[in-house]
Each structure stands twice: as C-alpha cells, then as structure tokens.
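Help wanted!
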Amino acid sequence: MLKMFKKKGEQIFSPAEGTVMALADVPDPVFASGAVGAGFAVEPSEGSFRSPVDGELILVAKTLHAFAVRTDAGAEILVHIGMDTVKLKGQGFTGHRVKGDRVQKGDLIISCDLAQMSALVPSMVTPVLLTNGTAFAIAETEIGADNSAPVLTVRKK
Amino acid sequence: MAKQTVTVGSSVGLHARPAAVIATAAGAYDEEILLSIDGEDPVEATSALMIMTLGADFGMSVDVESENADAVAEIAALIAKDLDS
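Answered by r_m:
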C-alpha cells in the first residue's frame, strides 16, 4: 500500500483555460530548451491564471507576470505568464493572492485582459515548469489533456 | 568563504532568462553558492526559481557567497552582465 501511495506522485494541472502544448513548442529558446525547468505550456484562451496544484505560494513576481507554488511534497512549480511580459512591469496584470499564501488547485492568482495583453507582447503562451528538477522528476506528461485533467505527474526522486 | 557584492546588470532584473543562465552556471560547481540582498535570507544560485524570489531589479546590489572563489567570480560577473539582450 505504501509503495502504491508513493508511486502516485502529485498531479499538476493547466493554470489557464486553453490549449496545452509541449514545452519544445514555446516560441522562446530559453523556455523551449528546458533551461528554466522541464514541463509544458498552455496557450491561454482566457486571462485567469490559477494555481496548478495545492501548496504554498512561494513567488509572486513584483511585475505579476509569474508565480510559483511549492507542493506539499516539495516540488516547485513555476507559472510564467507569456513571453517578455516582465517588460510590462506589472501593467495590465492584477494580483489576487500574495507570497506565503496557502493555495488550492484552481485558486485565482493573477488575472489580465488577454486580448489587450496579447497586443503588447510577442506571445501569451504560458510555460508551467518544475524548477527543482534535481529533487523531483516528471513521471508522466499528457500534452493532449483537456483542461480538467492533470497534465503532469511529478514524483520525488 | 569568498564574497562579492555586485550590481544587477540585466535590464529586466534577475527574472526567467537571466535567472536560468545563472542557475545553469552555478550548477557546474560542487560548492554551494548563495545569493542574498540586504542581508535577507540567502537563496541557492542553482535554482532559477529561488533566484527569481529575490526580486532583484536592475541596479540592485546582490551578495554572492561561496567556499569556491572562482564560483563567486563567475556568478558575480554574470549578475553584472545584461543577460536579457
């Protein structure tokens, strides 16, 4: 039983409504190469960005273009909203939670007017990354997943 | 313990791209490399995410510490460069 429980791992969901895609298809070489972390991306169809997993909010960028959640097992999941959005310096983004908050999967963290933002940056494709890959591994990836199904399963190494 | 204080040279601050470059370089060393701002809790330079949690903007001072002086010199030089161009 214990072994089965261990094998289950933690499930990471898409942080936004939209099309889930492979990280390699992100239009930015730094993310596509996996240099920031392994994971997936979502082309959002709506501007609400939610926690992809239960855990603690360990990062909300001052510029509100990224946030990260540490799961109960310790995996660190970064959600980076769009490409070059750091240059907007927070313009257009609204933060709904703060660093240190306990969050549940699906809690609204950051929102924006997607159409308005899309005009300002090269892409709103949002990478979702496991950034502590030395301690955790991605066991499964479901790129075709619909928005209610988990995309990644992560497990402690 | 070697220590150096440098000014962030990346115009966007130490965010995704610069943080990834620094974390990759830090990962090449066996010794722990710590970054901190204003004496606050240091973070490990091998984690791009933890670097981002520093909130280091362009022009801010970052302390780099490690047992390995070469590591301090390399990471300090990267922080001082504009890694987002």
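OP: Thanks! One thing I noticed: Chain A has a mean pLDDT of 92.
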